[in-house]
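Subject: ABC-type quaternary amine transporter structure
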Amino acid sequence: MKTNENVAAVNTTAKAATVEFRGLRREFGPTVALDGLDLTVRPGELVALLGPSGCGKTTALRMLAGFEHPDSGEVLVDGEDVTRVPAHRRDAGMVFQSYSLFPHLDALDNVAFGLRMRGVRTGERRARAAELLELVGLADKGGRYPHQLSGGQQQRVALARALALRPRVLLLDEPLSALDAKVRLTLREEIRRLQQELGITTLFVTHDQEEALSMADRVAVMHAGKLEQCAAPAELYGRPATAFVAEFVGTMSRIPGRVSDGVVDVLGQRLPVDGAAPQAGEVDVLVRPEAVRVSADADGKARVLATSFLGAAVRVTVGLADGSEVKADLPAHEATALTAGAAVHVSLPERPVLVAERTA
């Protein structure tokens, strides 16, 4: 595995770069892939682009790599406009979902390939490739071909190859999606640790919210070509800026309520509204499972529909009197009496809540 000396040997890049997307727009026929994307990635930061399929996150990454060009807008690296600069001159290393290793080259030569294309002498490039393989924990696998490596090992080789040219920016396009859950967990921790130690500016595309929240300094949630919110994971989860972010990141229940003058009536309570809200009218109150309180109550109008054991917590699904459902995560010892069919009382903490337009 890597040592501090390995990291020092590899970490001879130029200073970490600042990346800016300014007003990027890209259309593919009638489909708008990016609709005015503005985003800044700070030096040494790892930002995850998170969103459903077709939201524009991969298009944005490919524009930074130089594989796509916007219809309008600019891509800047350290203030330099690289919008029309060819991919091979972008000084970016990219790791693809499919690994894209050369099957006829062993691991060492795969890592050294870009150096060979740049005319680096044989001894120097092989020494550097060996350093990188050790950095990613594959010091003894340099002579193996891709078909002799596991999926996780192939992805480590792809990462080492991306770092070989000492790029200012590292681009990761769903690099873990083809791996099984255990390998994915291990590798994402290793990628994050390596990225922090090297201090390289990194943009990471994923549709996996757990992956994004666990790895990124900030998460940029995209929807229909637009940036909904970019924030640190805790802020994104605890204070979502829009209803889309609230429901896409984590689990969220909708409870019917009525707004009047910045206050919402919900579950027999009057709570302040967090953020923008209509002056008056029917709304849905958005709540996380851990914020919902459920207690046994013989006179309660709500009923437990189902329970699911989650380890330290139990998720309780409750049917409300109006026919809607709400999920609550409770400590296991508090949920022992909450069996299916039990009458319960449901309430929310006395703090501001997020509201959204009422769904049909």
